[in-house]
Amino acid sequence: MPPRTSPEPAPPSSHARPTVGHLLELVAQAFGLNKATVINEIARNAAAPKGDSDPSRETILSYIKEPRSAVVQGKRISRRNKQTPIHHKFAHLVLNYLDGQRPDKGYLEASHTGLKSSSWQEARAICARILREERERRFKHPLGSDPGSQSILERIAGVYAVCRQETHDRNYHQELLILRNAGTPSAPRCYCTYVSDQVVTRGEWMLIGSVVHCSMSGLRQDNSHEIGGLYLAHIADYDILTGFLAGAGTDVKIPVAMPLVAIRVTNSHPTIY
Questions:
Q1: Cα torsion at 158, 159, 163, 164 (round to 10°)?
Q2: CB-CB contact of 87 with 55 (8 Å)
Q3: What is the largest CA-CA distance in the chain?
Q4: Are residues 78 and 155 in the same domain?
């Protein structure tokens, strides 16, 4: 009989959640920096104007430390530190850092030819996957449109240029609304994204009668929360939506309603979804 051997360990699953330590290594390689500099810059960018960030600065800075055990109030607690699985809030912070920082000269030269470093691409793909999984978890039970409205949802879905009147300055702002219809008729996934010069909010949309309702939330650059809803009238066979955005004012956080009109962008590239 051949000698018994220990079974080889199974290769890690491609869907296993990576650790923050691995993610920070990729980010450091992408920008040619050490991990201490990267994590300190991420923590500084995450700082809220009043109070601590979420996750806290202390937690963010601990992500480059080795795993250890500590005694807190008489109880021994194991701290994963750089072995901590990536949380969607940290993935959001890292994604902002990746998209907002200037890489090194070699990276810039590569970007002119349409290329990006493999470490930058992998880090961004990891963050995008974490956020996509969180979105699927949060919207597991989608908003319910009228029965039999799937064909109408298909026609409404698309990219819209928005003209919105701001409350505080009464000026009109040009923004972007993306309505995506994914999934199947039995399990729809109607996602919406609203892009302004200050914030990107995401959520779900639904159709009730002739009214398109979008429920969205997002984070501003200072990590303050933005919550709002779009209520838009849809006219059959016309590429136009009109209505208002309801939410909380930026400065004083009082309820506001801002009129807007959205016109479909007919030649938008599929990758914008």
A1: 80
A2: yes
A3: 86
A4: no
CA–CA separation, 266 and 245 (whole Å): 23
* Same domain? 123 vs 192: no
Instruction: Assess whether 125 and 181 both reside in one domain.
Output: no
Query: Is residue 117 located within the same domain as residue 172?
Result: no
Q: Do 156 and 60 have their domain in common?
A: no
Distance CA 103, CA 80 (A): 29
Q: What is the pLDDT of residues 246-268, one digit of tens each?
A: 887 666 667 888 889 999 998 77
Residue 106: domain span = 20-138
How many structural domains compose the chain?
2
* Cα of 254 vs its chain's centroid, Å: 25
Q: Token digits for 186? A: 């039995």
Beta-carbon contacts of residue 36 (< 8 Å; ≥ 6 apart):
64
Which amino acid is present at 84?
T
Helix, strand, coil percentages for the chain (3-state, nearest 5): 30, 35, 35
Model's pTM, two decimal places?
A: 0.54
Does some domain include residue 4? no
Please provide residue 50's backbone torsions phi and psi, each rounded to the nearest 5 degrees.
-135, 125
